[in-house]
Design a protein that fits this description.
The chain is mainly α. It has one domain. It has two helices and no strands. The longest helix has 15 residues.
């Protein structure tokens, strides 16, 4: 994701530790893209 490194790392850290997260924001701000990248990264890890 472009220019979303902090959000991506925080989301991955939370999900890895078992914390539920909510991705909130304005329309077209990249919420779904962030969720997809997090899911793909976790899937790669196994």
């Amino acid at each position: 994701m472009f220019d979303r490194d902090e959000e991506l790392e925080l989301a991955l850290k939370c999900v890895r530790s078992g914390v539920w997260i909510a991705i909130l924001g304005l329309r077209m701000s990249g919420k779904t893209s962030l969720a997809k990248v997090v899911a793909n990264e976790l899937r790669r890890e196994g």
